[in-house]
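Please fill in the sequence for the structure shown.

STRUCTURE ENCODING:
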């Protein structure tokens, strides 16, 4: 391996929190790029392990959000103070949190299928977005009620119960999905290893699946002395495997840092209920909170 690659791999774990912060403050979209031919073998191995497996059956029977479970009010945010308050979880509660929540809530898919799951109570939902208040910038919650919303899931768009938090100064509420995802199935294939290389990096997080299901945007990492991140897509009837890599890495000395970049991969057909997988880990790609900048 090139010296910069080893340096990047060694510093990956230490620099990931800083990189996530940088990605949240503004990231660049990139087209998917080409990869060394041999790395495609790993993607095919992952697809072969998952397609027709028990893990895939569990995935298709469960509820796995492929979008942020916190949905911001329309036109959020009014100003930088509100933006910073949300990012810091700075909320002030000036409303009663409802009690007596039903034990179950229902996911209803466009296909007509449904699934009943334990319902998160209002306190847990509030605590998941609010770290507390204070004298500094904060968002004020003036009302709380149980309602619903729609989001993209592993089985397509679905209507789900959500806690609606009315925020002072906003016409529409902040929504927090009131259901937890189903337990993830164990992967039928192990990760490549603990250390990524330029030729195969871990896909860090899922950002979004497009409304038509024909593209996926993820966060992928690269260093400071290269041409950026790329993600190749391998599609089968049962899965979509993403292989992340670094493009144009330099052979010279380079500062030790990890930059996370949004990369969008186009699909030949809708994602549907196919499993979205990371070639490096061999596991489903997890979603993340959407940046607020």
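FILLED IN BY: designer on duty
SEQUENCE:
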């Amino acid at each position: 391996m090139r010296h910069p690659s080893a340096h990047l791999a060694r510093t990956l774990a230490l620099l990931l929190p800083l990189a996530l912060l940088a990605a949240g403050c503004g990231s660049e979209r990139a087209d998917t790029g080409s990869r060394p031919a041999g790395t495609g073998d790993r993607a095919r191995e992952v697809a072969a392990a998952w397609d027709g497996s028990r893990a895939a059956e569990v995935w298709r029977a469960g509820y796995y959000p492929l979008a942020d479970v916190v949905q911001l009010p329309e036109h959020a945010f009014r100003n930088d103070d509100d933006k910073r308050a949300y990012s810091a979880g700075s909320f002030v509660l000036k409303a009663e949190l409802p009690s007596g929540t039903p034990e179950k809530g229902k996911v209803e898919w466009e296909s007509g299928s449904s699934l009943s799951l334990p319902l998160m109570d209002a306190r847990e939902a509030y605590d998941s977005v609010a770290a507390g208040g204070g004298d500094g910038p904060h968002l004020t919650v003036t009302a709380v009620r149980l309602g619903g919303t729609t989001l993209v899931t592993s089985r397509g768009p679905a209507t789900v119960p959500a806690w609606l938090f009315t925020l002072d100064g906003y016409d529409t509420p902040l929504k927090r999905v009131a259901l937890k995802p189903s337990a993830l199935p164990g992967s039928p294939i192990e990760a490549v290893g603990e250390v990524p290389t330029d030729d195969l990096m871990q896909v860090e997080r899922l950002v979004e699946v497009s409304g038509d299901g024909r593209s996926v945007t993820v966060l992928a990492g690269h260093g400071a002395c290269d041409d950026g991140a790329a993600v190749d897509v391998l599609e089968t009837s049962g899965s979509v495997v993403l292989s992340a890599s670094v493009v144009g890495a330099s052979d010279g000395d380079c500062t030790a840092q990890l930059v996370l970049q949004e990369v969008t991969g186009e699909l030949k057909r809708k994602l549907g209920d196919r499993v979205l997988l990371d070639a490096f880990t061999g596991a489903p790609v997890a979603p993340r909170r959407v940046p607020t900048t």
